[in-house]
Amino acid sequence: MMNADRGFLALLRDRQGSLLPIAAIAMVLTTALVGGGIDMSRAYRVQNRLQSACDSAVLAGRRAVTTSGYGDPEKNQAGNYFDTNFNDSSQETTGTNFTSSSFDNGKTIEGAATTQLNLAVMRIFGFQKFSLKVACSASMGVGNSDVMMVLDTTGSMSSGLGSSTRIEALRTAMKNFYSTVKTATTGSNSRIRYGFVPFSSSVNVGRLLMEKDPGYLVDNHTIRSRVQEKKWVNSSKTESEFKNDITGDWVPYGSSYTTENNCKSGLTNTAWAKNGSSQTFPPNTITSNDNQIVTTQTTVQPYKMTNRMCKQNSSDNKWYRNSQDRNRDEYVYTTTTSNRVFDYWKYQEVEYDVTSYKAFQPVTTETGPKGTEVSSTWRGCIEERKTDSEPTFAYSTINGITPSGAYDLDIDTAPTPDNDDLKWRPMWPEVAYRINQTNSASSACPYQARLLNEMTQSEFNSYAESLYPEGSTYLDVGMTWGGRLASPQGIWKDNVTLPPSNGGEVSRHIIFMSDGDMDPNQQIQSAWGIEELERRVTDDGTDSQDKSRHTSRFQAICAAIKAKGIRVWTISFTSGTSSVLTTCASPKSAFNADDASQLNAAFQEIAKQVGELRLTQ
């Protein structure tokens, strides 16, 4: 080593022919510097690619997590994403490895990736590979979210679906949705609120309206109903009694007798017989009202009878026959009762006072069989306020919903005291009748809607279990009321805009689930009355007009809601991909579910996006 040092020093002192060795040394140093820079640049690029692939993988793994936690299917999903985003051949790496795990049953996914980069230039200096390593993590980080669930609970939701029914599949998917979001918020100060609008041919918002302002509902409501036409039927009843039995003086007559027996022999009384003419008094009305008149007529008939007996005279002790006239009057009462009784039904519009009915008090009407009384109490479903029977409706940010004047499509405007057109009407099925129908019009009233509020798992589950299927599919009434209950500018804005205690922003969502396209029924009582007769939406009451016009209204409402910054999610359940629901949804927010598993997966996917899935370090 000392000899080498002395040789190198001698070379430096030697001024003869020294340029070439110096240049050679410089070239080696330059090659090392440039080569190191090239390989370090490649390593930096691969390191970034490795980190990006790792991040994508844990995000995919977290998104795959459902209520069963982080198992092999979820790990495989993460691994597939990593392999898609990092390829050894294109990156000139070898021995790449990715692993993922979760310490909290899927809430947080942690990953690690390693690889070996084959060096290009530095291998001439003996360096073959660089070892690269990255770590990554993804969790469900939830901010403040308001979730309004607008749910189809029509009769078709009772249909079988494998081992359960559609409504049971919905209840399960709802509960799992809550569990997923709840797991993500545990230990945070996030505020999550839920509201609900179950819908069919109407919505049950009566109690919400009455609590807000009883004046939001009319006091008098004209309904397609029936009134009974009556006829007079008479019945008579006759009764009699005797009065004024008068005994006259005893008057002796005939010869005397020595013994009482001789006196009585052959002695008889006369029979009661009419004595003079009868007298009839004018009829007297006892009671009188619209349905009954009772009158009486009295006839007085005089009668006379001669009563005979024997008496002994004290002065001569002989027996003498005596007579006594007895008089009495017979009063004959004839009572005639005239009753108005049911004859036939007259089907027409009838104005009803609904002040008691809308207050959920029992009300009696004479609309039962043959005019009998029927007691009914409001369940809470409504008929919509004034509308226009236009073929199409549209929404723009400049003009709002056009044509204007359809208050039933107005999400935000509150009723005013002096304008019944802006008020809702209580749906009263017990008095609603189609022409010449024996039974009242068919109707459906889903479970009552609920404003946005924080809920425990038990409260949420209880609400889900309360849903029941009945009625026809009116998508527009469901979405309209979902918008009304979720609008920051609407009637319930004090509830919607209530600031969270953490001071953060609130994301707003409507999840709209239906198992079918629009399917109005013109012969039932819906939120627009009996459409066959009332034609508030159509011109002719036909199905073709009804379906297309309600669909146009639905799309206009969807556009109005999205313009408020509310994200609209739609799920088409068991009915194939619905273009109507896809158009209604916000971008990348429409799902199709053919069975219970896919319905649950759709709710889970929405839960993850509502939950703001994000990377954590």
Descriptive report:
The protein has 617 residues and is an alpha+beta fold. The protein has 3 domains: 2-140, no CATH class; 149-217 and 380-426 and 439-615, Rossmann fold; 237-335, no CATH class. Helix content is 29%, strand content 32%. It contains 14 helices and 27 strands. Strands 8, 9, 10, 11, 12, 13 and 14 form a 7-stranded antiparallel β-sheet that branches. A 6-stranded mixed β-sheet has the order 21-7-4-22-25-26, sandwiched between helices. A hairpin with an 8-residue loop joins strand 15 and strand 16 (374-376). Helix 9 runs parallel beside helix 12. The longest helix has 46 residues, at 19-64. The model is unreliable at 28-35 (pLDDT under 50).
Can you give the mean pLDDT?
A: 89
Report how far apart the termini are: 52 Å
Report the uncertain regions. Answer: 28-35
Helix run count: 14
Supply the CATH architecture of the largest domain: 3-Layer(aba) Sandwich
Cα radius of gyration in angstroms:
48 Å
Look up the CATH topology of the largest domain: Rossmann fold
Number of self-contained structural domains: 3
Write the layout of secondary structure elements.
Elements: H1 2-13, H2 19-64, H3 72-85, H4 88-91, E1 93-101, E2 108-118, E3 129-140, E4 144-152, E5 160-161, E6 164-165, H5 166-185, E7 192-199, H6 206-212, E8 220-247, E9 251-257, H7 260-264, E10 273-274, E11 279-280, E12 284-288, E13 292-312, E14 319-353, E15 363-365, E16 374-376, E17 382-383, E18 394-396, E19 400-402, E20 425-426, E21 450-453, H8 457-466, H9 475-486, H10 493-496, E22 506-514, E23 525-526, E24 529-530, H11 531-534, H12 543-562, E25 567-573, H13 579-584, E26 590-593, H14 596-610, E27 613-615
Parallel strand pairs: 4-7, 4-22, 22-25, 25-26
Antiparallel strand pairs: 1-2, 2-3, 3-27, 5-6, 7-21, 8-14, 9-14, 10-13, 11-13, 12-13, 13-14, 15-16, 17-20, 18-19, 23-24
